[in-house]
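[scheduler] slot 2 assigned
[scheduler] job type: sequence-to-structure, two independent chains
[scheduler] chain ordering preserved from manifest
[runner] begin chain α
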Amino acid sequence: MFTFKMFASAAAALALSAAPAMADCAKTRTDAAAQAAGFQTIGYQTASTAKKPAKAAKGDIIDVAVGAGSFNTLAAALTAAGLVDTLKTAGPFTVFAPTDAAFAKLPAGTVDSLLKPENRAQLVSILTYHVVPGKITSNQLLEKITPATTVQGRQATIDGRNGRVTVNGVAVTAADVAASNGVIHVIDTVLMPPAPKSH
């Protein structure tokens, strides 16, 4: 599994704690949809539409996610897992970012449990499963199935056929959110890494 170093100064700059993140986690899906509307939506777009250049980056992946306002739980989880450092480095990275509403869909108590220090390894595994090395834009994904090895080490299957993109069956609701060190694709459900293969 990919190992990350903690970046205390960046984490402090986020000024996020688990408590406000959990409160924000209760935001409605309408809020998430409104936020996603500000991004380039990938659903049912044509190939020519997908080739539009991403908007100019306004910071790294962490800055963009925090500024968007609908990724508070993700930002708090990244801080708790000590992953802020890497996602503020040069990268590049492709992040499939679950919204607060996506985290709210998890069974009650799941996020609280994952944010506990004793469950850090599991949290790191889940979060790094949402990150793929390199910058992958939507026009590279359409009309084909793309297996991608995540930073966590296990593969995710990206299906860009039929004018839309899914990751392990989870819909990408907005694509090509530009960051200085990569790109964010918004998803509406938290991805869970597959169980380790038994020998």
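[runner] end chain α
[runner] begin chain β
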Amino acid sequence: MNKSMALIKNKKILLGVTGSIAAYKSAYLVRMLVKAGAEVKVLMTPSAEGFITPLTLATLSKNPVLSTFTKQENGEWNNHVELGLWADLLLIAPLSANTLAKCAHGFCDNLLMATYLSARCPVAFAPAMDLDMYAHPSTQENLKKLKAFGHHIIEPGEGELASGLEGKGRMAEPEDILEEIEILLSNTQALKQKKVLITAGPTQEAIDPVRFISNHSSGKMGYELARVCRNAGAEVHLVSGPVNLRVPKGVHFYGVHAADEMYAKAQAIFSGADVTIFVAAVADYAPKSVSETKIKKKDDELSITLRKNPDIASALGKVKKDGQITVGFALETDNAEMHARKKIESKNLDMIVLNTLQDSGAGFRYDTNKVAIISKVGEKVNFPLKAKSEVAEDIVNAIVKLMDQKV
């Protein structure tokens, strides 16, 4: 699950579930929302109960599931007006063609529809239907209506459908829906109209067709920074070495392997970037020559001549223009602060993020990090051990503060 869900924490989310085979995904969605710290209440249409039980969703949400205007046993009213006012977000997932048509035309024949018409919060829809139903002109017109109302449509995916056909109509996966919600709930535009370049992950320097030199970087810190910058309204360009991570939605992504590739791609983007964050763990050296065939194991020793790779931050720092902000990272094992301050000067950085392998839970492959941010003017701010998603927010806040000072 995506670990950068700070925007969902403590939010009140109404989840509407309609009659679709994709309703089974709602169970996963509720679980993820609750795990991200949201308070979730589920509203079901009567037909939805044929696909998933209220008991399942009530257990996962830790709240009663509502589907009727009154509680049959005592006549107590499920107040749709109060529900609409309570929510920070109304999410209808899955959205069937039937409920889509009702929302587009203001029909109000069940509790979910009455709540939708009463909601003052943002509304998001995740359609789910067969490809011909989704492609039908009436469906497309109804979707246009919802967009015109200011609602957010989470595009369905393509693949095998319940009918056995292949095409567009699958409800978006719960992980994708959560990321869409995070973007929707973002209330900061501190980097709006800013272009941010981020390098992330390791580089892989080939020895032969099957072997390479690399390091332990997971790319997590860079990807969290891409997500936070995106949430702050930036146009984000992520140049990444090979990692096993989901690319944040809405981010321009460029996958590379070797340091030379990363340098070429970063160089092409750099001149137009307002902010550049050098997070990647670029290999310092690469084999001088790469064998075209696999090197056979025959001698007790093997010598490989290495050449120095380009220092991307240093090279781009030399062509940095007035107004551009560059941020570096330093992972040190000894004399950490001294080495970090030297890098600020040698690479022409505005600030550097320092972490050390001496701190437990910090550095490569962890979901946490403990950093200090050192500015070009010598200021140093120490932060405790935090999730990398929170560290990314601290770094972006420092960048925004620096931008404000330069205005």
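[runner] end chain β
[qc] chain β: The mean pLDDT is 92.
[scheduler] slot 2 released
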